[in-house]
Each structure stands twice: as C-alpha cells, then as structure tokens.
Write a structure and sequence with these properties.
α5 (143-157) packs antiparallel against α6 and α5 (143-157) crosses α7. The chain has 321 residues and is of the alpha/beta class. The protein is 39% helix and 19% strand. The strands form 2 sheets. The protein has a 6-stranded mixed β-sheet with strand order 6-7-8-9-11-10, sandwiched between helices. Strands 2-1-3-4-5 form a 5-stranded parallel β-sheet. The termini are far apart. The structure holds adenosine monophosphate and manganese (II) ion (2 copies). One manganese (II) ion (MN) binds next to loops. Residues 25, 83, 108, 127-128, 156 line the site of one manganese (II) ion.
C-alpha cells in the first residue's frame, strides 16, 4: 500500500490538477493517474482539470475527459497536484486546491517547498510520471496508463538524453514497455512531429538568435507580432530552447516569448555547469538544475541583461572553483 492508497481511504471525490501551460510530463502524469483511479478505484468520483492541453496528446486514453474549465466553489475530498512546483502555477486550479479537504502533491521540482498537506517530491526523479509510477501498484498498470507515463518520461528526459535520466528511469520505461505500448509512435507523434508553422517559427528563432558572453550564452525571442504573423501560439514554441542549447560552445540558452506588452515567459537551459533553477528562482520562477523557467517584465534588453548578470556571476564562480 502506497501513500496514494492511504490518502484515498474514505475519499469520495478527487480533483486532479497540473500546472499552467501543461507539458508532456504534466499531462502524462495527470492522465496516468486519472486512468489508474478510474480502473483501480472506480467508486471515486474523479475530476481532471487542465489548462488547454495540446491536441498532440489526443492519443492518450481519457483525453476527452479533461475539463478545461476549472471547477469553482467546490470542496473536493482530496486534491492531487502533479508536476506543479508552487500553488501559483496551478493557475485556474488554485481555488479548487484551496477548498479541498485534503491534498497530495506529487512532483520532482527541486524548487518545490511542499505546499500540500502530504508531499511526495523526488528531485532526483526524471519526471513526475516516474515518481507517480512508484506510487502505483505495478500489476494494475494497463497499456493505456503506461502510454501516459511513458509520454511524460520521454518529454522530461528529451527521449532519455537529458542528465535527469537515470538507470531507474530506464527500468521504469522498460516496465512500461512490457505492457505493449507502441513507443516508436509515441516518441514520433508527441515529441518530434512538428507542423509546418512550428518548423517556420523554430527556423526564425534560430536565425535571429544572438550569442554573448564569448559564445557561452545564446538567446532568442519570439514576439506577439511574430506569433500573429506565423499563426502560432505559445504551444507551438516547444523545443526551440532545446535546439538553442545544442549550439556548439554554449553553456546556457535563453528563450523568451512575449505574453503581453513588456512581459516575457523565460525558458533557461544549461549544459554542464550552470544551475538555472537558482537563477529562475531568483526571478520568482523555478524548475530543475538544467531546465528552468520564470516570467519577467521590462524590455527584452532589460530581461536579457538581468539574466546575463546572474549567468556571468555563476559562471565565474564555477570556473574559478
Ligand atoms: P520551461 O522552460 O517552461 O519548459 O520550463 C522548464 C522547467 O522549469 C519545467 O520543469 C517547468 O515546470 C519549470 N518552470 C517553468 N516556469 C516556471 C515558473 N514560472 N515557476 C516554476 N517553475 C517553472
Ligand atoms: Mn512540467
Ligand atoms: Mn516534470
């Protein structure tokens, strides 16, 4: 019996929440848990609310059951938050979380201070999907649940290549494969596939990228007017920062996109040395050592300059050490 089973004792209604702008791990873990509860705890009434999940995850079982309108003024017996490092990132789900009688947070963000009544946070895990796997009874995991968790793992590990990938990650993935999932299709369709306009905006962002700090940093920005021109939304910008990070000689990649006038969503990635979670946390965000994010205001010049000061300082510290 895991902590999940203990928390579900005597519970009638469950609310599952993820973070704003949900990514593959958020959606995979939320859907994996949703399908598990439907199967293993059929008498619990489960509601899953997520902000506008991308259509590319439509192959996951139960995708059409996701509510995009957040529940208000309802007190659930238990609220389970997945892949979300603080309550602000619950977005429209914050009210449901606050009103719930009990709460459980399952996560892997190093910046998560443990905001729920019970917290299962493993910063060494590749993904929340991997943490969740440890809380489920293995023999009850169906192929459909495995598809969800596998999707989460490949998205947060960049298909098993980021440094967060561990031997344990591979063992979990192996167990998920044993259920008979079509892993090649999942990887192609949810991770690598791009629409024509997604490729165009990626190309544009790479073309306009600028290196600084002697090539140790690279940055690019997509403005609202660019998004309008190409007919894309923020959901079409996934993967741009990863491509920037691959640039030869680069230790840190910065990608910004404009959310409103003078306001930017910032994505930070590093290769070997920088702790970008620390930098993102300084600006009110969070994440992981090699992948983190925050939201910043001001001109593009101000945002990059402010980040650059922290990057340069940290680089000097690690290089001088
Ligand atoms: P992103 O650059 O948005 O792909 O995010 C990289 C990592 O940092 C992910 O694990 C996010 O969950 C986390 N992250 C991004 N933005 C924030 C934020 N504002 N606050 C806390 N964590 C964040
Ligand atoms: Mn996430
Ligand atoms: Mn995650």
């Amino acid at each position: 019996m895991s902590i999940l089973d203990t928390k579900l004792e005597g519970v009638k209604t469950v609310l599952i929440l993820g973070h704003v702008h949900p990514d593959g791990d958020c959606i995979g873990s939320c859907m994996g848990l949703f399908n598990y509860l439907e199967e293993v705890y059929p008498d619990r009434e489960v509601t899953l609310c997520l902000e506008d999940p991308p259509e590319k995850f439509g192959y996951l079982k139960g995708f059409t059951c996701v509510q995009t309108e957040f529940v208000k003024e309802t007190s659930f017996d238990l609220c389970i938050c997945l892949d979300c490092s603080n309550t602000e990132r619950l977005g429209g789900g914050e009210e449901g979380f606050a009103l719930a009688k009990d709460s459980l947070c399952i996560d892997h963000h190093v910046t998560n201070a443990g905001y729920a009544k019970t917290n299962v946070i493993d910063p060494d895990a590749s993904s929340t999907s991997e943490v969740l796997f440890g809380l489920l009874e293995e023999s009850r995991i169906t192929r459909e649940m495995a598809e969800c968790l596998y999707t989460g793992i490949i998205h947060d590990t960049g298909v098993f290549k980021y440094s967060c990938t561990t031997p344990k990650t591979m063992l979990v993935a192996a167990k998920l494969m044993e259920t008979g999932i079509d892993f090649s299709r999942i990887i192609d369709e949810s991770f690598y596939r791009k629409t024509y306009v997604q490729n165009q905006i990626l190309g544009r962002a790479l073309l306009e990228s600028i290196t600084f700090l002697d090539g140790a940093c690279v940055f690019s920005v997509v403005r609202l007017k660019d998004m309008r021109f190409y007919g894309v939304t923020s959901k079409d910008l996934d993967g741009i920062v990863e491509q920037l990070r691959l640039t030869d000689g680069v230790e840190c990649a910065i990608f910004l996109y404009e959310t409103e006038a003078q306001r930017y969503k910032v994505s930070l990635r590093s290769k070997h040395k920088l702790d970008v979670a620390k930098i993102a946390a300084f600006f009110g965000g969070g994440g992981h050592v090699r992948a983190a994010g925050c939201t910043m205001s001001g001109s593009i010049y101000d945002v990059v300059n402010n980040l650059s000061l922290h990057i340069e300082k940290q680089l000097k510290e690690v290089e001088g050490a």
